[in-house]
Amino acid sequence: MDREAAGLYILDETLESVGFGKFQAFALGYAGLGWFAEAMEIMILSFIGQAVKSECQQTSTQESLLSTIVFDRMLIGAYTWAFYQIIMAGGTLITSISSSLLTN
Questions:
Q1: What is its main location (predicted)?
Q2: How far apart are CA 66 and CA 85, in angstroms?
Q3: pTM for this structure?
Q4: Within 13 Å, how many C-alpha atoms sit on residue 24's CB side?
Q5: Contacts of 70 by beta carbon, 8 Å cutoff, 6+ apart
Q6: In whole angstroms, what is the distance from residue 77 CA to residue 69 CA?
Q7: Residues 41-81: tens digit of each pLDDT
Q8: pLDDT, tens digit, 9 for 90 and up, residues 82-103
Q9: For residue 32, what pLDDT is reported?
Q10: d(CA 37, CA 14)
């Protein structure tokens, strides 16, 4: 079956038809700020770890544990928001996983 006859579009064709306007620029900028904040958090954590280690007389293991806890909480938060999105979208976990795996 032909892709166009079936009404299927690839990502490039979809973006061409939608275009790039003010909303897309705002969404791109907002996502960029989030990415920037995430990178800053990781970089600042390396400086704060050294300061906390010297200020509180921590061992290297305790300093590493502090960074591990931060990243562990980031992982929990990502999964929490993902499940919240699934619930709010009215889908199930299986449909969300299968749709993400089956896209081009």
A1: membrane
A2: 29
A3: 0.49
A4: 6
A5: 41, 45
A6: 12
A7: 888 888 888 888 888 888 888 888 888 888 888 888 888 88
A8: 777 777 776 666 666 666 665 5
A9: 92
A10: 30
Encode 31-41: b = buried (16+ Cβ within 10 Å), e = exposed: eeeeeeeeeee
Cα–Cα dist 10/30, whole Å: 25
Question: Which residue type, as a one-letter code, is found at position 28?
Answer: L
Q: For residues 82 and 96, give the distance between their C-alpha atoms in angstroms, rounded to a whole number.
A: 10
Annotate 32-77 with three-state secondary structure: HHHHHHHHHHHHHHHHHHHHHHHHCCCCHHHHHHHHHHHHHHHHHH
Instruction: Compute the distance between CA of residue 82 and CA of residue 4 in angstroms, rounded to an integer.
Output: 32
For residue 38, is pLDDT > 90?
no
CA distances from 56 to 42, 63, 95, 99 (A): 21, 10, 48, 48
Backbone angles phi, psi at 90, to 5 degrees: 80, 10
